[in-house]
Amino acid sequence: MDSLTRRRFLRASGVVGGAALAAGAGGFGLAELLRTASKEPAGGLPGKTNKVVIVTLYGGNDGLNTVIPYADSAYHSARPELAYAPEKVLRLDNALGLNPVMKGLKRLWDENRLAIVLGVGYPKPDRSHFRSMDIWQTASPGSPVNTGWVGRWLDGTKAPVEAAVSFEPVLPPLLAGRTRVGACVSYRGLALPPWIEPGVVSALGRTEPDEPAMQARAAAAYADLISMERVVREPGQTIGSPEAADDGVGPATGTGAGNALAAQLALVARCVEAGVSTQVYSVSLGGFDTHAEERTGHEMLLTQLDQALTGFVARMARTEAGRQVSVVVYSEFGRRVRANASDGTDHGTAGPVFVLGAPAVGGFYGEQPNLTDLDDGDLKATMDFRDVFGTVLSSVLRADPSRYIDDYRGSVLPFVRSD
Amino acid sequence: MTDDVALLLRRAGFGPTAAELAAARQSGYSATLSALVAPPGPDVGATTAPVPELGPDPYVGLPSPTPAERAKADGARKTQTMQVTRWWLDRMIVANHQAVEKLLFFWHGHWATSVSKVRSAQLMLTQHRTLRNARDFGDMAHRMVVDPALVYWLDGQHNKKDAPNENLARELFELFILGIGQYTERDVKEASRALTGWRAVLDSDRLVFDPQHHDTGSKTILGTTGNFNASRVVDLLLKQKACPRFIASRLWFRYASSTDPIPERVREEMAAAFPAPMSMLRALFEADAFRATRHTMVKQPVEWLVGAIRQLGLRPAHLRQDTFTQLYNSLDGLGQRPFAPPSVGGWPAGPAWLTSAAAPIKLNVAHTLAGLANPGRLTPEDVAYILCVDKWTDRTYAVLRDVRDARLLLTLGLVSPEYQVT
């Protein structure tokens, strides 16, 4: 419940810095984004562009209590206080089941629209949140690089800024390329105070030609405020008001009020339905660092995840453009097989990746790691995460994975229909 | 040269008043720097903001609280948290020793511990005193490894011989003392064993040590084998070459540039002054590379707010409760409330503070402060003088020139792009 020691802003805290990141954060508004929408895309059928939404679960999601090896006695003996009884889990087959709170995802599984890639990780696991998240986002486990795999795809395709969009407060390294960065659009509610003329704020938002970059960015925030303010005042958009969040009601405290993931996905849905040309969306949910008293907090997070994802998939199924959208859900690592003395789990290694949406081909991919053949108490990964992201590049973005992932030796997994 | 003095005051403290800036320009860069890092005599201004006496934590004496008692105690904790926050903001404003207060805020972000999990304002205040009273970084690290709030925040109370919890050990290596890449997973596991046996209790400002939960076995950390305990682990980490350099780079990140890495020469000069943080800061501020970072740092929300309140001659302690509550909630909305960092990684920096979501909050806070300051007639030049802004851009000047209302004029100065960057 109280495990909110690490959340977002991780990259921005500057423990690992990056000038390209600084260049991308802020400065791009939802209004600008929606303006890029064209009703009749050149040389193609409307809405026939594949899109992917990448959902990052910050903190290290406990994969073993998400896709549960309920029939394995080793699971129950390693974490007696945390393990779910076999009759409680939502069974997917005779070995694995979903956490009891993930009823929506179970429904998608039954409809063959949920793919689960098992045991995903990378060689020589790193248990630092920062480094491990870097590895997933840069797709470079061997040595640190300062570009993300989506960022390199932006470089390689000379993509416009709106090709990749993050609705997180801070631009993730995933979307940072060498010469290009994705757009970062805040999802928070915006409202102009009544005592000021919008024209005055607009005027403050003009940048001067020879202004220092950071000062120009401060100005751009006002231009952005004016343009986004109009869009956000729509039915269904909640206008957030700041309130002190120290009552510790749940692990999402401090990551934003309410279901922050659902809010971000609502913005994605709106962009997709409006025909925005963005092909990669990045959204996130934090709070998965469950070192202590894990059960309640983790269930609350998985409930949020389940509701946000299934609501989004249902909405996307209603339009042609929406039916081109795949969703990929990952976390920087799983957690230790054995519980610690705090009814929680410490940082671990491999975990499951979810792929869902209309283009997803449901079912299991890869193998569940063996719970008795461990590497110093941790699962051995059975699938390299670059195979998953390589498949996204190849089957969704129609790109050659080896161009954007160094030492790519993966094979394309058939979890996305490529028609 | 005079502009360098303004830069120095903005970075080393929370934002100079017009009078402070004028005096510093008189004395010059070198004397101003000396007065900042080695202030003579006691801090007279700070004596008007004594540390509050909170009394015992509301949960003390409630071993099994009823729901009603719980609600009451939670409410009391919330009030106390607001009380200590109000006190600290007030202290930042009235302190004459600005560099001392700013450095303390740096340390708070470094050992980033949040009341949202710790819950007890008393324990947060104890940690604050510990940071304030530490002689140097070495002393600070020794005190912090057994600081109740930090240990509780990082699950140290659950770290026992039979089932170690690595959270605290990992952050000692990664975020607090050495920096990433200077240790192995094995070092983290071994060090967590050395830290076993401590737990926080609400009615004491010291941890309780349970010998039966402490792992007395031999541990091998960073190539050294021995019967390490918490203090000896800290000794070992402090002896590493990486430690002074890591602390130097963290100071650079907050005081000089959050985008450009610390130049090697500055890093070595700062590391040579380790473990005295003020001496390290002196080396930073004396470096030419520091002056080259002008206009690249975005004010953190606390810097922005505290600087504004100082320059307008206000005090949090004298505000009406509802006005202070608005400021308190606004800091939360801006993403930086003292005693409540978002994660153990601390607060972000740079353009992360310049979102369009932050803009309306800043507008409202500035409007409130400008109303309290109750200015008479003002010109754009007056506003620049009060806020110690070197010069308005043509853009901002054009906006300010047409404003007749003094409160609005001051508000716009406070939210101007020029004022938000140092």
Quick description:
Chain A has 419 residues and is an alpha/beta fold.
Describe the biggest sheet of chain A? 9 strands, mixed
In N-to-C order, the SSE pattern of chain B is: HHHHHHHHHHEEEEHHHHHHHHHHHH
- Quaternary state of the chains: heterodimer
- C-alpha Rg of chain A, in Å? 21 Å
Poorly predicted sequence stretches spanning 5 or more consecutive residues of chain A: 1-27, 40-47, 230-258
Instruction: Assign a percent range to the helix content of chain A.
Output: 25-40%
CATH fold field value of chain A? Alkaline Phosphatase, subunit A
**CATH architect. name of chain A:** 3-Layer(aba) Sandwich
Distance between the termini of chain A: 44 Å
Count of alpha/pi helices of chain A:
12
Record the strand order, biggest sheet of chain B.
1-2
Tell me the number of strands of chain A.
12
Summarize this structure as a short list of keywords or feature phrases.
heterodimer, A: nine-stranded mixed sheet, 30% helix, 12% strand, globular, disordered N terminus, B: 422 residues, mainly alpha, two-stranded antiparallel ribbon
Describe this structure in words.
The complex is a heterodimer of chains A (419) and B (422). With 419 residues, chain A is an alpha/beta fold. Chain A has one domain (28-192, 219-404): Alkaline Phosphatase, subunit A (3-Layer(aba) Sandwich), CATH 3.40.720. In chain A, 30% of the residues lie in helices and 12% in strands. Chain A has helices at residues 19-24, 30-35, 73-78, 103-110, 129-138, 149-157, 198-204, 213-232, 260-274, 294-316, 385-396, 401-404; strands at residues 51-57, 67-68, 90-91, 97-98, 114-121, 164-166, 183-184, 280-285, 325-331, 351-356, 363-365, 383-384. In chain A, helix 4 (103-110) packs across helix 10 (294-316), helix 7 (198-204) runs antiparallel to helix 8 and helix 9 packs parallel to helix 10 (294-316). The N and C termini of chain A lie far apart (44 Å). The model of chain B has no long low-confidence stretch (mean pLDDT 94). In chain B, the strands form 2 sheets. A two-stranded antiparallel ribbon of chain B has the order 1-2. Chain B has a two-stranded antiparallel sheet with strand order 3-4. Chain B is mainly alpha-helical and 422 residues long. In chain B, strand 3 (219-221) and strand 4 form a beta hairpin. In chain B, helix 2 (18-37) crosses helix 14, helix 9 (167-177) packs across helix 10 and helix 13 (264-272) packs antiparallel against helix 14 (277-286). The chains are: A alpha/beta (419), B mainly alpha (422). At the A-B interface, helix 7 and helix 8 of A face helix 3, helix 5, helix 9, helix 17 and helix 18 of B.
